[in-house]
Amino acid sequence: MADDHDLMAKDEHQKLAAQKRFARRKREKARRRGEALEQRLIQAGDLRPGGVARLAAVCFGLAIHALTLLVFAGAMAALLSGIWPLYLLTILGFGVVWVLRPRLEKRPGADWLRREKAPGLFAILDRISGATGAPTPKYVKVDARFNAATARRGVRHEPVLILGAPLWQILDGDERLALLGHELGHQVNGDTTQGVLVATARRSLHEWRVLLYPSGVGWSGPGVAGLAQLLLPVVLVPFYLMVTGFQTFYGWLQVHVSLRAEFLADDIAAQTASTASVIALMRKLDARPSVEAYVTRTKFGRRTARVTPSLEDATHMWIGLQDYITTIPEHEYIRAARLSELRGTQIDASHPANYLRLRLLKGRPTRGAAVKVTEDEWLGVDRELAPYVTEVGRSMLR
Predict the structure, then answer these.
(1) 2-6, 47-51, 249-253, 331-335, range with the lowest pLDDT
(2) 263 CB contacts (<8 Å, ≥6 apart)?
(3) CA nearest 278: which of 354, 225, 381?
(4) Which residues contact 252 (CB under 8 A, 6 or more apart)?
(5) Comparing 139 with 335, which gets the higher pLDDT?
(6) pTM score > 0.90 for this model?
(7) Rounded to whole angstroms, how far apart are CA atoms 369 and 44?
(8) Cα 354 to chain center, whole Å?
(9) Which of 56-70, 123-137, 163-177, 181-195 is least confident?
(10) Which of 85, 61, 65, 62 is CA-nearest to residue 73?
């Protein structure tokens, strides 16, 4: 354990030791599942989630929405019964259905980039789409997260891409290509949990949790929805048991569909930009604490902290970050990688720990880049994104 103390601070060891037995067992179980899946996939010819697991995800989505329809049918039956005391159940039922209704993500607004605003970036995305078979995103947004994401939004279920400026700014060209390949890979990696059916069902399941586990944070406030939320835990105990079962089942889906699809997205990124580029990207992902610390120091180190940050302030911050990232010593990256393995941490329940992703990449055949992007093209993309990256920088300095 001496080596562990060299990696983790004393207070972190005390925090881990103080965790409840259930939390520790849950964390260790997740680690074992992730490691077992990684070992199976090293030898697998196809990383795509199995057909049974994907079918199970579809059944999960249908079951959740059927539950909402059942509540609606019960409310209508109470309304049509003509028995006035049952009208209370009608009000309760309609309130529950309103809260649980399937909801699509809103269509991107004016702050999203379209092809005419960033033709260079979209040209690169077209090439990646051609290599991966994924649809080209219709919209791109730059935000302040150290992350990137892809999704489908609106009634037309259009693909969109979100690029976190802090991450994007520290990547070189090949690493950016790997990041884009990974994100577009999510559109074709067989992850049915991200489809409209299961995604809306997952949001409905979350609302069930809010209704059955009321809190000040989740309370819908006064009105029909608020009344339904307050009365539901008392009236619908069977639903509590049912939702608990659905939550357990969705955890199984995340292991057998989402985690496997995440590994496949890494493999697609390796086919797009090369295995070496994806490994380099993973290395930069471990720099997140250092990047966040740099931004915090810059924010509170401004002499004119009370003045709204200018475009020049944001530009200086990004230039300084790019210089700073080159000064991080190699041993710090090694330490971060060892910490990832020691903690067995995940970004969330659908993302395997970075050390497992690296193991799988290194354990499978080495890939070369299917897409090439010149330095001049990346400079053109930087010019296109500069106004948006700068504005994000200003928001981070406020």
Answers:
(1) 2-6
(2) 37, 38, 41, 47, 352, 357, 360
(3) 354
(4) 56
(5) 139
(6) no
(7) 22
(8) 14
(9) 181-195
(10) 65
pLDDT tens, residue by residue, 8-40: 555 545 555 555 565 666 667 667 777 777 777
Asked if residue 206 lies in contact with residue 302, where contact means CB atoms within 8 angstroms, the answer is no
Ramachandran assignment for 222, one of left (phi > 0), alpha (psi -120 to 50 degrees), beta (any other): beta
Contact in structure between 266 and 357 (CB atoms under 8 Å)? yes
Query: 288 is written with which tokens?
Result: 């997140």
Give me the count of residues in the chain: 398
Candidate from 61-65, 287-291, 330-334 with smallest mean pLDDT: 330-334
